[in-house]
Specification:
single chain; about 475 residues; alpha/beta; Lambda Exonuclease, Chain A; 3 domains; seven-stranded mixed β-sheet; five-stranded mixed β-sheet; 14 strands; binds iron/sulfur cluster; plasmid; DUF2779 domain-containing protein
Length: about 475
Protein backbone atom coordinates (compact mmCIF):
# COMPACT_ATOMS: atom_id res chain seq x y z
CA UNK A 1 0.00 0.00 0.00
CA UNK A 2 1.38 3.43 -0.97
CA UNK A 3 1.58 5.85 1.95
CA UNK A 4 -0.59 8.97 1.89
CA UNK A 5 -0.09 12.37 3.48
CA UNK A 6 -2.31 15.39 3.93
CA UNK A 7 -0.97 17.02 0.77
CA UNK A 8 -1.54 13.82 -1.21
CA UNK A 9 -5.12 13.67 0.03
CA UNK A 10 -5.53 17.31 -0.97
CA UNK A 11 -4.14 16.45 -4.41
CA UNK A 12 -6.61 13.54 -4.68
CA UNK A 13 -9.51 15.82 -3.74
CA UNK A 14 -8.49 18.23 -6.48
CA UNK A 15 -8.05 15.45 -9.03
CA UNK A 16 -7.41 11.70 -8.70
CA UNK A 17 -5.03 11.85 -11.63
CA UNK A 18 -2.93 14.50 -9.87
CA UNK A 19 -2.46 12.21 -6.89
CA UNK A 20 -1.55 9.30 -9.15
CA UNK A 21 1.04 11.37 -11.02
CA UNK A 22 2.52 12.79 -7.81
CA UNK A 23 3.11 9.28 -6.55
CA UNK A 24 4.04 7.38 -9.71
CA UNK A 25 5.33 9.99 -12.20
CA UNK A 26 6.75 12.92 -10.27
CA UNK A 27 9.26 13.43 -13.10
CA UNK A 28 6.43 14.82 -15.27
CA UNK A 29 5.79 17.81 -12.97
CA UNK A 30 6.49 21.33 -14.24
CA UNK A 31 6.42 24.13 -11.70
CA UNK A 32 5.25 27.64 -12.53
CA UNK A 33 7.04 30.94 -12.03
CA UNK A 34 7.65 32.20 -8.51
CA UNK A 35 7.39 28.73 -6.92
CA UNK A 36 10.94 28.94 -5.58
CA UNK A 37 10.49 32.34 -3.87
CA UNK A 38 7.16 31.24 -2.37
CA UNK A 39 8.83 28.12 -0.99
CA UNK A 40 11.53 30.19 0.75
CA UNK A 41 8.90 32.52 2.23
CA UNK A 42 6.76 29.57 3.45
CA UNK A 43 9.81 28.04 5.14
CA UNK A 44 10.60 31.25 6.97
CA UNK A 45 7.09 31.38 8.44
CA UNK A 46 7.42 27.76 9.60
CA UNK A 47 10.73 28.58 11.31
CA UNK A 48 9.17 31.64 12.95
CA UNK A 49 6.35 29.49 14.35
CA UNK A 50 8.96 27.33 16.10
CA UNK A 51 11.04 30.31 17.26
CA UNK A 52 7.96 31.70 19.03
CA UNK A 53 8.07 28.68 21.40
CA UNK A 54 11.69 28.47 22.53
CA UNK A 55 10.87 25.57 24.90
CA UNK A 56 9.37 23.46 22.13
CA UNK A 57 10.90 20.33 20.76
CA UNK A 58 11.44 19.56 17.08
CA UNK A 59 10.83 15.96 16.08
CA UNK A 60 13.32 15.23 13.35
CA UNK A 61 12.49 12.92 10.48
CA UNK A 62 16.02 11.50 10.72
CA UNK A 63 17.15 8.83 10.14
CA UNK A 64 13.65 8.02 8.88
CA UNK A 65 9.97 8.64 9.54
CA UNK A 66 9.77 5.49 11.66
CA UNK A 67 12.12 7.24 14.10
CA UNK A 68 9.87 10.33 14.09
CA UNK A 69 6.81 8.16 14.82
CA UNK A 70 8.65 6.51 17.68
CA UNK A 71 9.93 9.78 19.17
CA UNK A 72 6.45 11.33 18.99
CA UNK A 73 4.84 8.35 20.74
CA UNK A 74 7.52 8.38 23.42
CA UNK A 75 7.25 12.12 24.14
CA UNK A 76 3.48 11.90 24.43
CA UNK A 77 3.67 8.82 26.67
CA UNK A 78 6.21 10.62 28.86
CA UNK A 79 3.82 13.58 29.21
CA UNK A 80 6.28 15.98 27.60
CA UNK A 81 4.84 19.44 28.24
CA UNK A 82 5.35 20.45 24.59
CA UNK A 83 4.94 22.19 22.36
CA UNK A 84 5.93 19.60 19.79
CA UNK A 85 6.93 20.58 16.26
CA UNK A 86 6.45 18.16 13.39
CA UNK A 87 4.92 15.54 15.71
CA UNK A 88 4.42 12.51 13.46
CA UNK A 89 1.45 10.15 13.38
CA UNK A 90 0.18 7.42 11.10
CA UNK A 91 -3.40 6.14 10.79
CA UNK A 92 -4.70 3.81 8.08
CA UNK A 93 -1.62 4.43 5.95
CA UNK A 94 -1.88 8.23 6.20
CA UNK A 95 1.16 9.91 7.68
CA UNK A 96 0.96 13.46 9.02
CA UNK A 97 3.53 15.75 10.54
CA UNK A 98 1.75 18.34 12.66
CA UNK A 99 3.35 21.78 12.51
CA UNK A 100 2.64 22.65 16.16
CA UNK A 101 0.99 20.65 18.97
CA UNK A 102 0.43 22.35 22.30
CA UNK A 103 -0.80 20.71 25.51
CA UNK A 104 -3.80 22.52 26.95
CA UNK A 105 -3.80 23.28 30.69
CA UNK A 106 -7.11 21.47 31.24
CA UNK A 107 -5.99 18.37 29.27
CA UNK A 108 -6.02 17.51 25.59
CA UNK A 109 -4.16 19.16 22.72
CA UNK A 110 -4.33 22.19 20.51
CA UNK A 111 -2.99 21.58 17.01
CA UNK A 112 -1.98 24.27 14.57
CA UNK A 113 -1.21 24.12 10.87
CA UNK A 114 1.12 27.00 9.95
CA UNK A 115 0.44 28.90 6.72
CA UNK A 116 2.23 31.89 5.25
CA UNK A 117 -1.03 33.48 4.07
CA UNK A 118 -2.58 36.35 6.01
CA UNK A 119 -5.89 34.55 6.61
CA UNK A 120 -7.24 31.03 6.69
CA UNK A 121 -8.59 29.87 3.34
CA UNK A 122 -11.31 27.44 2.49
CA UNK A 123 -8.86 24.91 1.05
CA UNK A 124 -6.90 24.84 4.34
CA UNK A 125 -9.79 23.06 6.04
CA UNK A 126 -9.13 19.79 4.17
CA UNK A 127 -5.50 19.66 5.38
CA UNK A 128 -6.48 20.41 8.94
CA UNK A 129 -9.30 17.85 8.88
CA UNK A 130 -6.88 15.17 7.67
CA UNK A 131 -4.55 15.94 10.55
CA UNK A 132 -7.32 15.81 13.14
CA UNK A 133 -8.68 12.57 11.63
CA UNK A 134 -5.24 10.93 11.90
CA UNK A 135 -4.65 12.25 15.41
CA UNK A 136 -8.04 11.08 16.62
CA UNK A 137 -7.40 7.72 14.98
CA UNK A 138 -4.20 7.52 17.04
CA UNK A 139 -6.13 8.24 20.23
CA UNK A 140 -5.03 11.87 20.68
CA UNK A 141 -7.53 14.11 22.43
CA UNK A 142 -7.72 17.09 20.07
CA UNK A 143 -9.61 19.92 21.74
CA UNK A 144 -8.94 22.66 19.22
CA UNK A 145 -7.40 22.88 15.76
CA UNK A 146 -6.35 26.07 14.04
CA UNK A 147 -4.81 27.52 10.94
CA UNK A 148 -1.92 29.57 12.29
CA UNK A 149 -1.56 32.35 9.74
CA UNK A 150 0.43 35.55 9.40
CA UNK A 151 -1.02 38.64 11.07
CA UNK A 152 -0.71 41.36 8.45
CA UNK A 153 -0.96 44.11 11.08
CA UNK A 154 2.23 42.98 12.74
CA UNK A 155 5.11 45.49 12.43
CA UNK A 156 8.66 44.42 13.24
CA UNK A 157 9.94 46.68 16.04
CA UNK A 158 12.93 44.74 17.34
CA UNK A 159 15.00 42.39 15.15
CA UNK A 160 14.02 38.78 15.80
CA UNK A 161 11.16 39.68 18.16
CA UNK A 162 8.18 38.05 16.48
CA UNK A 163 5.50 37.96 19.20
CA UNK A 164 2.20 38.76 17.51
CA UNK A 165 3.39 37.71 14.04
CA UNK A 166 1.08 34.68 13.89
CA UNK A 167 -2.60 34.32 14.70
CA UNK A 168 -4.78 31.27 15.15
CA UNK A 169 -8.07 30.86 13.35
CA UNK A 170 -9.75 28.01 15.25
CA UNK A 171 -11.61 25.76 12.83
CA UNK A 172 -12.33 22.53 14.64
CA UNK A 173 -16.06 23.31 14.76
CA UNK A 174 -16.16 23.46 10.94
CA UNK A 175 -14.35 20.19 10.32
CA UNK A 176 -16.86 17.60 11.55
CA UNK A 177 -18.31 16.74 8.12
CA UNK A 178 -14.90 16.49 6.44
CA UNK A 179 -13.47 14.34 9.24
CA UNK A 180 -16.48 12.02 9.05
CA UNK A 181 -15.83 11.50 5.34
CA UNK A 182 -12.06 10.93 5.59
CA UNK A 183 -12.26 7.11 5.87
CA UNK A 184 -14.05 6.93 2.55
CA UNK A 185 -11.76 9.48 0.84
CA UNK A 186 -8.66 7.63 1.96
CA UNK A 187 -10.09 4.33 0.70
CA UNK A 188 -10.80 5.84 -2.71
CA UNK A 189 -7.36 7.46 -2.92
CA UNK A 190 -5.68 4.13 -2.14
CA UNK A 191 -7.77 2.44 -4.81
CA UNK A 192 -6.71 5.01 -7.42
CA UNK A 193 -3.05 4.48 -6.59
CA UNK A 194 -3.36 0.74 -7.05
CA UNK A 195 -4.70 1.15 -10.62
CA UNK A 196 -3.33 2.50 -13.90
CA UNK A 197 -3.13 6.29 -14.42
CA UNK A 198 -6.68 7.71 -14.39
CA UNK A 199 -7.59 9.45 -17.62
CA UNK A 200 -9.28 12.46 -15.99
CA UNK A 201 -9.78 15.13 -18.63
CA UNK A 202 -8.30 18.57 -17.91
CA UNK A 203 -10.81 21.25 -16.97
CA UNK A 204 -11.50 24.04 -14.50
CA UNK A 205 -10.35 21.84 -11.62
CA UNK A 206 -6.76 21.99 -12.94
CA UNK A 207 -6.31 25.44 -11.43
CA UNK A 208 -8.59 25.19 -8.39
CA UNK A 209 -7.58 25.53 -5.64
CA UNK A 210 -4.01 25.31 -7.01
CA UNK A 211 -2.43 25.28 -10.44
CA UNK A 212 -1.63 21.68 -11.20
CA UNK A 213 2.00 20.89 -12.03
CA UNK A 214 0.98 18.21 -14.56
CA UNK A 215 -0.99 20.42 -16.95
CA UNK A 216 1.54 19.98 -19.78
CA UNK A 217 1.44 16.20 -19.41
CA UNK A 218 -2.35 15.95 -19.35
CA UNK A 219 -2.85 18.25 -22.31
CA UNK A 220 -0.22 16.49 -24.41
CA UNK A 221 -2.65 13.94 -25.81
CA UNK A 222 -5.34 16.48 -26.69
CA UNK A 223 -5.97 17.50 -30.29
CA UNK A 224 -3.88 20.56 -31.12
CA UNK A 225 -5.81 23.74 -30.35
CA UNK A 226 -6.35 26.21 -33.17
CA UNK A 227 -3.35 28.47 -33.79
CA UNK A 228 -5.49 31.45 -32.78
CA UNK A 229 -7.97 30.18 -30.18
CA UNK A 230 -11.05 32.29 -29.61
CA UNK A 231 -10.01 32.60 -25.95
CA UNK A 232 -7.49 35.29 -26.87
CA UNK A 233 -10.45 37.70 -27.04
CA UNK A 234 -10.07 39.72 -23.84
CA UNK A 235 -12.29 40.34 -20.82
CA UNK A 236 -14.34 37.15 -21.00
CA UNK A 237 -15.43 37.66 -24.62
CA UNK A 238 -13.43 34.58 -25.67
CA UNK A 239 -15.22 32.38 -23.12
CA UNK A 240 -18.59 33.68 -24.37
CA UNK A 241 -17.73 32.77 -27.99
CA UNK A 242 -16.44 29.39 -26.87
CA UNK A 243 -19.79 28.75 -25.19
CA UNK A 244 -21.45 29.55 -28.54
CA UNK A 245 -19.42 26.76 -30.16
CA UNK A 246 -16.51 28.71 -31.68
CA UNK A 247 -13.02 27.65 -30.69
CA UNK A 248 -11.09 29.25 -33.56
CA UNK A 249 -10.94 33.04 -33.57
CA UNK A 250 -10.59 33.03 -37.37
CA UNK A 251 -14.09 31.50 -37.66
CA UNK A 252 -15.82 34.25 -35.67
CA UNK A 253 -17.74 36.57 -38.04
CA UNK A 254 -16.00 39.98 -38.02
CA UNK A 255 -19.29 41.87 -38.30
CA UNK A 256 -20.40 40.49 -34.94
CA UNK A 257 -17.44 42.00 -33.09
CA UNK A 258 -16.84 45.54 -31.92
CA UNK A 259 -14.35 47.61 -29.94
CA UNK A 260 -11.24 45.84 -28.72
CA UNK A 261 -12.56 42.44 -29.85
CA UNK A 262 -12.83 43.72 -33.42
CA UNK A 263 -9.27 45.07 -33.18
CA UNK A 264 -7.89 41.76 -31.85
CA UNK A 265 -9.77 39.82 -34.53
CA UNK A 266 -8.66 42.05 -37.41
CA UNK A 267 -5.00 42.07 -36.30
CA UNK A 268 -5.07 38.29 -35.95
CA UNK A 269 -6.70 37.60 -39.31
CA UNK A 270 -4.54 40.07 -41.25
CA UNK A 271 -1.26 39.60 -39.37
CA UNK A 272 -0.90 43.41 -39.43
CA UNK A 273 -0.60 45.00 -36.00
CA UNK A 274 -3.17 47.57 -35.02
CA UNK A 275 -1.37 50.83 -34.33
CA UNK A 276 -3.31 54.00 -33.75
CA UNK A 277 -0.21 56.14 -33.85
CA UNK A 278 -2.15 59.44 -33.74
CA UNK A 279 -4.29 58.39 -30.78
CA UNK A 280 -1.28 57.20 -28.80
CA UNK A 281 0.71 60.33 -29.66
CA UNK A 282 -2.21 62.54 -28.61
CA UNK A 283 -2.48 60.89 -25.21
CA UNK A 284 1.27 60.96 -24.60
CA UNK A 285 1.47 64.59 -25.69
CA UNK A 286 -0.20 65.47 -22.40
CA UNK A 287 2.82 64.13 -20.51
CA UNK A 288 5.53 66.62 -19.58
CA UNK A 289 9.30 66.62 -20.19
CA UNK A 290 11.71 65.21 -19.33
CA UNK A 291 10.23 61.74 -19.02
CA UNK A 292 11.44 59.09 -16.66
CA UNK A 293 10.56 55.52 -17.66
CA UNK A 294 10.54 53.75 -14.32
CA UNK A 295 10.17 50.18 -13.07
CA UNK A 296 10.56 48.71 -9.58
CA UNK A 297 11.32 45.18 -8.46
CA UNK A 298 10.07 44.33 -4.99
CA UNK A 299 10.28 41.55 -2.45
CA UNK A 300 7.74 40.56 0.22
CA UNK A 301 8.66 38.44 3.23
CA UNK A 302 6.17 36.46 5.27
CA UNK A 303 8.42 37.14 8.25
CA UNK A 304 9.54 40.78 8.15
CA UNK A 305 13.30 41.18 8.18
CA UNK A 306 13.65 44.92 8.53
CA UNK A 307 12.50 47.25 11.32
CA UNK A 308 9.21 48.99 10.57
CA UNK A 309 8.09 46.53 7.88
CA UNK A 310 5.02 44.30 7.87
CA UNK A 311 4.55 40.74 6.61
CA UNK A 312 4.08 40.46 2.86
CA UNK A 313 4.77 44.16 2.37
CA UNK A 314 6.17 44.91 -1.08
CA UNK A 315 9.62 46.39 -0.46
CA UNK A 316 11.57 47.80 -3.39
CA UNK A 317 15.10 46.48 -3.73
CA UNK A 318 15.71 47.63 -7.31
CA UNK A 319 14.68 50.10 -9.95
CA UNK A 320 15.68 50.91 -13.48
CA UNK A 321 14.99 54.21 -15.16
CA UNK A 322 15.48 55.68 -18.58
CA UNK A 323 15.56 59.47 -18.60
CA UNK A 324 14.30 60.82 -21.90
CA UNK A 325 14.72 64.47 -22.89
CA UNK A 326 12.44 66.29 -25.28
CA UNK A 327 15.22 66.34 -27.90
CA UNK A 328 15.19 62.53 -27.90
CA UNK A 329 18.34 61.85 -25.89
CA UNK A 330 18.03 58.94 -23.48
CA UNK A 331 20.16 58.11 -20.43
CA UNK A 332 19.89 55.01 -18.27
CA UNK A 333 20.43 54.75 -14.52
CA UNK A 334 19.50 52.23 -11.86
CA UNK A 335 19.55 51.11 -8.27
CA UNK A 336 20.01 47.62 -6.85
CA UNK A 337 20.62 46.54 -3.28
CA UNK A 338 21.94 43.02 -2.73
CA UNK A 339 23.79 43.37 0.57
CA UNK A 340 20.81 41.99 2.51
CA UNK A 341 20.28 45.24 4.43
CA UNK A 342 17.02 47.16 4.41
CA UNK A 343 17.05 48.67 0.90
CA UNK A 344 14.33 51.30 1.43
CA UNK A 345 16.38 54.33 2.47
CA UNK A 346 19.03 53.84 -0.20
CA UNK A 347 16.31 53.27 -2.79
CA UNK A 348 14.43 56.43 -1.77
CA UNK A 349 17.61 58.51 -1.87
CA UNK A 350 18.57 57.12 -5.28
CA UNK A 351 15.13 58.04 -6.64
CA UNK A 352 15.44 61.60 -5.36
CA UNK A 353 18.95 61.86 -6.76
CA UNK A 354 18.23 60.35 -10.16
CA UNK A 355 14.77 61.72 -11.00
CA UNK A 356 14.78 65.40 -11.98
CA UNK A 357 12.18 67.56 -10.18
CA UNK A 358 9.11 68.04 -12.36
CA UNK A 359 9.80 65.08 -14.68
CA UNK A 360 6.86 63.01 -15.88
CA UNK A 361 7.24 59.47 -14.58
CA UNK A 362 6.04 56.81 -16.98
CA UNK A 363 5.30 53.35 -15.67
CA UNK A 364 3.65 50.30 -17.17
CA UNK A 365 0.71 49.66 -14.84
CA UNK A 366 1.42 52.81 -12.83
CA UNK A 367 -0.69 51.99 -9.72
CA UNK A 368 2.14 49.68 -8.64
CA UNK A 369 4.92 52.27 -9.03
CA UNK A 370 2.69 54.92 -7.39
CA UNK A 371 2.10 52.61 -4.44
CA UNK A 372 5.81 51.98 -3.97
CA UNK A 373 6.61 55.71 -4.18
CA UNK A 374 3.91 56.55 -1.62
CA UNK A 375 5.11 53.81 0.68
CA UNK A 376 8.67 55.16 0.59
CA UNK A 377 7.29 58.67 1.20
CA UNK A 378 5.56 57.37 4.35
CA UNK A 379 8.76 55.72 5.54
CA UNK A 380 10.98 58.79 5.17
CA UNK A 381 9.37 62.08 6.17
CA UNK A 382 12.44 64.08 5.09
CA UNK A 383 12.06 62.77 1.52
CA UNK A 384 8.29 62.60 1.61
CA UNK A 385 7.53 65.76 -0.41
CA UNK A 386 9.78 64.72 -3.28
CA UNK A 387 8.50 61.13 -3.34
CA UNK A 388 4.82 62.11 -3.03
CA UNK A 389 5.36 64.54 -5.87
CA UNK A 390 6.79 61.71 -8.00
CA UNK A 391 3.75 59.57 -7.21
CA UNK A 392 1.49 62.43 -8.35
CA UNK A 393 3.45 62.78 -11.57
CA UNK A 394 3.24 59.10 -12.43
CA UNK A 395 1.45 58.40 -15.70
CA UNK A 396 0.44 55.02 -17.03
CA UNK A 397 1.58 53.60 -20.36
CA UNK A 398 -0.54 50.47 -20.05
CA UNK A 399 -3.97 51.97 -20.90
CA UNK A 400 -2.41 53.88 -23.80
CA UNK A 401 -0.97 50.64 -25.15
CA UNK A 402 -4.22 48.80 -24.56
CA UNK A 403 -6.14 51.39 -26.55
CA UNK A 404 -3.74 52.02 -29.39
CA UNK A 405 -1.60 48.93 -30.02
CA UNK A 406 -2.25 45.29 -30.66
CA UNK A 407 -0.08 42.65 -32.30
CA UNK A 408 -1.50 39.18 -32.69
CA UNK A 409 1.52 37.65 -30.92
CA UNK A 410 0.27 39.27 -27.71
CA UNK A 411 -2.45 36.62 -27.80
CA UNK A 412 -4.96 38.74 -25.95
CA UNK A 413 -2.61 40.08 -23.28
CA UNK A 414 -1.18 43.58 -22.83
CA UNK A 415 1.32 42.55 -20.15
CA UNK A 416 4.74 44.11 -20.72
CA UNK A 417 6.25 40.67 -21.31
CA UNK A 418 3.81 40.09 -24.18
CA UNK A 419 3.88 43.59 -25.68
CA UNK A 420 7.58 44.44 -25.63
CA UNK A 421 8.74 41.64 -27.98
CA UNK A 422 6.09 42.73 -30.52
CA UNK A 423 7.14 46.38 -30.72
CA UNK A 424 10.88 46.35 -30.30
CA UNK A 425 12.24 42.84 -30.92
CA UNK A 426 13.13 42.77 -27.25
CA UNK A 427 12.09 39.63 -25.51
CA UNK A 428 12.99 38.06 -22.19
CA UNK A 429 13.91 34.60 -23.47
CA UNK A 430 17.64 35.36 -23.71
CA UNK A 431 17.82 36.82 -20.19
CA UNK A 432 18.81 34.90 -17.08
CA UNK A 433 15.93 36.50 -15.15
CA UNK A 434 12.77 36.29 -17.22
CA UNK A 435 9.95 37.51 -15.00
CA UNK A 436 9.06 38.96 -11.62
CA UNK A 437 9.05 35.55 -9.90
CA UNK A 438 12.58 34.87 -11.20
CA UNK A 439 13.67 38.31 -10.02
CA UNK A 440 12.48 37.59 -6.48
CA UNK A 441 14.16 34.18 -6.38
CA UNK A 442 17.38 35.72 -7.76
CA UNK A 443 17.29 38.48 -5.16
CA UNK A 444 16.80 35.96 -2.34
CA UNK A 445 19.78 33.98 -3.55
CA UNK A 446 21.89 37.13 -3.94
CA UNK A 447 21.28 38.29 -0.35
CA UNK A 448 21.83 34.84 1.12
CA UNK A 449 25.10 35.03 3.10
CA UNK A 450 25.91 31.52 1.86
CA UNK A 451 26.05 32.74 -1.76
CA UNK A 452 29.57 32.85 -3.11
CA UNK A 453 30.75 36.41 -4.09
CA UNK A 454 31.35 35.45 -7.74
CA UNK A 455 27.89 33.98 -8.01
CA UNK A 456 26.50 37.09 -6.33
CA UNK A 457 28.06 39.26 -9.05
CA UNK A 458 26.42 37.14 -11.74
CA UNK A 459 23.07 37.40 -9.97
CA UNK A 460 23.41 41.18 -9.77
CA UNK A 461 24.15 41.40 -13.48
CA UNK A 462 21.13 39.22 -14.26
CA UNK A 463 18.83 41.40 -12.15
CA UNK A 464 20.18 44.62 -13.68
CA UNK A 465 19.70 43.29 -17.22
CA UNK A 466 16.13 42.20 -16.48
CA UNK A 467 14.95 45.45 -14.90
CA UNK A 468 16.60 47.53 -17.62
CA UNK A 469 14.74 45.47 -20.21
CA UNK A 470 11.47 46.43 -18.55
CA UNK A 471 12.12 50.17 -18.87
S1 LIG B 1 -3.64 18.79 -15.13
FE1 LIG B 1 -5.77 18.62 -14.49
S2 LIG B 1 -6.39 16.62 -15.16
FE2 LIG B 1 -4.18 16.59 -15.16
S3 LIG B 1 -3.59 15.83 -13.18
FE3 LIG B 1 -3.63 18.01 -13.02
S4 LIG B 1 -5.66 18.51 -12.28
FE4 LIG B 1 -5.74 16.43 -13.05
Amino acid sequence: MVGLSKSRIAAFEQCPRRLWLQVHRRDLAEWGEGAEALFVIGNEVGEAACALHPGGIMIEAEPDLAAALETTARLIAEDHPGPLFEATFMHRGVLVRVDVMERLPGGGWHVAEVKSSTASKEYHTGDLATQVWVLQGCGIDVRSAAIRHVNNRFVLQVPGKLDGLLRDADMLGMLGGIIAGRDEVVGKAQAVLAEEEPQTAPGDHCSRPHDCEFAAHCRRGEPLPPEWPVTVLPRGAGAAWLARGYDDLLDVPADRLSGVNAIVHAATVSGTPYHDRGGAAFEMMQWGWPRVWLDFETIAFGVPRWIGTRPHQQIPFQFSLHLEQENGTMAHSEFLSTDGNDPRRACAEALVEQIPAGAAIVAYHAPFERRVLRYLAECFPDLSDALQDMAERCVDLLPVTRKHWYHRDQRGSWSLKKVLPTIASLDYGSLEVKDGGDAQATYLEAIDPATDPDRQLLLREALLAYCERDT
